[in-house]
Amino acid sequence: MREALPVDAVAPLLPRYGVRSLAEVFPAVLAALGVPGPAPAISLPPVRAAAVLLIDGLGSELLRDHAPDAPTLAALAGEPMTVGFPSSTSISVTSLGTGLPPGVHGVVGITFRACEDRLLDSLKWTSHAEPEATDLREALPPEQIQPHDTALQRAAADHVRVTSVGPRSFRGSGLTRAALRGGHYEGVIALGDLTSEIVRALSGPGRRLVYGYHADLDTLGHLHGPGSTPWRFQLRQIDRMVATLVEQLPPDALLLVTGDHGMVQVTRRYDADQLTPLRLGVRLLGGDPRARHVYVRDGAVADVRAAWQDVLGDDAWIVTRDQAIAENWFGPVAEHVPERIGDLVVALRGVAGVIRSVAEPTISRLPGQHGSLTAEEQLVPLILATTVR
Question: What is the pTM of this model?
């Protein structure tokens, strides 16, 4: 028997596009640096230099529940923001990097249909659910999948010195090219050089913009579960890193720290590779365990929806593509984007996930997951520190 959901979990938490979502962060930072553009939805003080640090997996609900492990982050956190849908890394990084909602930038899932009958893994920029993954950076150029200028490009065009600081392996990756192209990329390997490179890139004369990224909190949440002892110990290290950055901020500078999603512990798994009702009529299955794009065979939408609803029951919100667009799950949707969205869009609730034990064996085993429209996954902190006099 399924566990009953609490009353406040009945409705999905829809992203606050245009008001207070990840897509509003960089427009606010660019305005603070004096880069011309529309008036931002989030107000920041004018600064000479700014750093935006994205901590993968840092959700507001988790930070609130583990505030003693992160006193610096907790003390500086203001009103939370929503991320976007799906609430997963490649979607959120692209919304952050472009200042656009998923329906406009077009990265609408961890895996999604970017061309007929082929799924793109937007994290690795490879084919998905094929016997061997194929690098798709030439066949599906990131600059075409996501054609809009990034915030980093806009800053650089206004003569701001722009630096990205992140894992060495991300330099030139498909996602970096899609979401964060522009400026100089500085590859690092650990918290120590991430911290020092952010400080170095902020220092010196003139206007400066720095983007930093750290992945390990998300990794430990996936492997051990959010709030686990390894996760908490990593949060403590991140808190100390942020405290160091605050201490080392040069004059007239701003540090903004946020996350790309929260995380939940999944204990109830529905295996789409083994459950026949979840396979019948399905041509392609994209997304991730908490947010699925279901691409169905011609004329099968109603039957597939009924089958999935019968299996998942109250463990999922299941809507058609048109309904998801009408209800603003993806924000405004550009003309070329609807075909990338599943005929059905499935957002999981509670502790449930739709896994694929054959096509996605690694992620299917992980206890920590994210991607849906719950507060635990949608809400991320907006953490600010400045040396503006």
Answer: 0.95
